[in-house]
Specification:
single chain; mainly alpha; 49% helix
Length: 338
């Protein structure tokens, strides 16, 4: 049996509640026109938004293309200047090698073994002039003095300036990392002076820049946050905390080597130029050469999250077998890749 539900009826003398909402033909026509205009405006706004996105994407692609072209130009110019067998103006390669052997003997020892390259005839190329101070003209007797006085001068300026410095971002801009513009803050000034090394592959240079940038950022602007932004394996060792040592040692990547250098067991000052070249040739972050490490973010070029994570993991850093064979005492203190 079905149940009958009677429909509500409206008495003849009453007006339905919605009778007053009924539109006249003119009002309906006006509503249709307004709806049509609204839809047209929405389509126009959507089209404008899409065009802006396309413009931003096109600009980002052009910037990436520009950066790649810059990198190719830099690598080409460096390869032309730094070819094997090219002499430093005024000094032949053989004369420089002889000078390194006779004028810069290595006296520092680890245990009972002298710390010196297994092969002393390490060529010095044109982009690394003889001399350790990075000032122009040279104003310091050693690399260590140059580095420390540069940092102290910046620290004094930060502490004595009347207006507080602007916050330094945790991630530097690509144009600073690739040294495509003059430095704009205290951290990038130090990086610009000391980290420009044409021998480093681009990915390694970017990775080394990121680590040193975080350390300097904490040095100049110490806080809980800037300290947390430093990878744990770059935190100070016991020797760094308790033994006076040159400041540049704090920026050595490998903890055991950093610890030994702070204790005075390792000293590369006597052959720094050759050591820097050999280290630049041997260091790797084991990042696939075919894999991109740049991305676009709001039309700006930045590092991919995967690359950032890769750089801050200690096990991705290593030295080559050639470096290990040339510096066997140091090889025991670093990671050597197979």
């Amino acid at each position: 049996m079905s149940t009958f539900i009677p429909l509500a009826t409206v008495p003849a003398n009453e007006t339905p509640a919605n009778a007053g909402r009924r539109r006249t033909p003119a009002q309906l026509q006006r509503k249709r026109e307004l709806d049509k205009a609204s839809q047209k405006l929405k389509r126009k706004q959507h089209k404008s938004h899409v065009e802006k996105l396309e413009t931003s994407l096109r600009d980002a692609r052009e910037e990436i293309h520009h950066l790649r072209a810059k990198l190719q130009d830099l690598e080409l110019s460096f390869s032309l200047v730094a070819g094997h067998g090219r002499d430093i103006p005024g000094h032949s390669i053989s004369a420089v090698n002889q000078l390194m052997q006779t004028k810069h003997p290595v006296s520092t020892e680890i245990g009972n073994e002298s710390l010196q390259p297994a092969n002393k005839a390490s060529s010095l190329r044109a982009e690394f002039p003889i001399g350790r101070c990075r000032c122009a003209p040279q104003a310091h007797k050693s690399y260590s003095d140059c580095f420390e006085e540069t940092l102290f001068a910046i620290l004094i300026k930060i502490d004595t300036q009347l207006t507080p410095s602007k916050p330094i971002p945790a991630i530097p801009e690509i144009t600073d990392v690739l040294f495509l513009r003059p430095p704009g803050n205290p951290v990038t000034k130090v990086m610009y002076k000391f980290l420009r090394n044409p021998k480093l592959p681009v990915a390694v240079q970017c990775a080394a820049y990121l680590l040193a940038y975080r350390l300097l950022r904490y040095r100049f602007f110490p806080s809980i946050q800037t300290y947390r932004d430093i990878p744990e394996w770059l935190h100070f060792t016991d020797a760094q905390n308790n033994v006076p040592h040159p400041l540049y040692i704090d920026f050595v990547i490998f903890p055991r080597l950093r610890h030994a250098m702070a204790l005075g067991l390792v000293n590369v000052d006597a052959f720094r130029e050759a050591f820097e070249q050999d280290a630049a040739n041997g260091v790797s972050i084991n990042w696939p050469a075919s894999k991109n490490f740049l991305a676009t973010n709001n039309s700006a070029v930045t590092f991919t999250p995967e690359f950032m994570q890769h750089v801050f993991q200690y096990h991705n850093w290593s030295m080559s077998l050639d470096f290990a064979e040339k510096y066997p005492q140091i090889a025991a203190l670093v990671t050597v890749r197979d």
